[in-house]
Amino acid sequence: MSAEANLAGLYPPGGQEMFNPNISWQPIPVHTVPESDERLLKFPLTPCPRYEQLQTETRHSAEYINKTKENWQFLEMVAKETGIRDISLESIWSVYDTLFCEQAHKMDLPGWVTPEVMTHLKELKDFGFEFLFGIHNRVEKARLQGGVLLDHIRKNLTKAANASAHQNLKLLVYSAHDTTLVALQTALDVYNKIQAPYASCHLFELYQEDDGNFSVEMFYRNESGKEPFPLTIPGCQHKCPLQRFLELTDPVVPQDWEQECKNYLWVWLCVDPFSFSLLFSS
């Protein structure tokens, strides 16, 4: 629906395209795949045992543990008021998102939801998004998550740069979720640690310079009243040469996603009165 709404704005009908004088719209195809086959735009990507192991490690990181301790009383209050038993830093977003939607639609919020509570929920929700793709071992998480989409984008940029004039691809548009955008920006190391608001857009622009070489510019549109903000990948300038852009993003692009997802360790702790051992299995 979001893709169709955007396309309705991009391609308003004119002349013979107006099939109804009262409807300023024309059908534009949106290509999708079954949810079971989706491996490009829905994040986190699953199943991926190695990613799940990294998430378990993240839960045991000092940053995650300290954040939980600092907010434990608040989390208990939210659990009591909502009836959600297993409330945590990574699940708090569902509470905030529900209240945010109700607030946006002018619905009355529960009495316990004060402006201060909403601010606190928002802060923890943003941390929960960072938990998904960062905090601990960002590069490897990126290879298993946002790096998959980035790989697809890199290939299209390279294809467009190598295409002849009559084959030149002009525009590719993906419509997805806030987690999709956060996964991509975390892989690029340009995420601002704030959940992407509705209708946010990350843009890649490919330019051919006067010397014939190509460069990539990135922008982030997350505020309707302002021009898109320029983004610069660490290690390059805003107008980044395509080859340099590819070099800088190589570490976060998976070579074999399914195999890398299988590269995990199970750990068994075996204890009896006479022995103590650790067994690692890949």
Q: What can you see in these coordinates?
A:
This protein is an alpha+beta fold. Among the domains are: 62-133, no CATH class; 138-259, no CATH class. The protein has eleven helices and six strands. Strands 1, 2, 3 and 4 form a four-stranded antiparallel beta sheet that branches. Strand 5 and strand 6 (275-281) form a beta hairpin. InterPro entries: Acid_Pase_AS, His_Pase_clade-2, His_PPase_superfam, Histidine_acid_phosphatase. It is a single-pass membrane protein. This is Lysosomal acid phosphatase. Its EC number is 3.1.3.2. Keywords: Disulfide bond, Glycoprotein, Hydrolase, Lysosome, Membrane, Signal, Transmembrane, Transmembrane helix.
List the helices and strands and how they pair.
Elements: H1 2-10, H2 49-59, H3 62-70, H4 72-82, H5 92-104, H6 115-133, H7 138-144, H8 146-162, H9 178-188, E1 201-208, E2 214-221, E3 229-231, E4 240-241, H10 242-249, H11 257-262, E5 266-272, E6 275-281
Antiparallel strand pairs: 1-2, 2-3, 2-4, 5-6
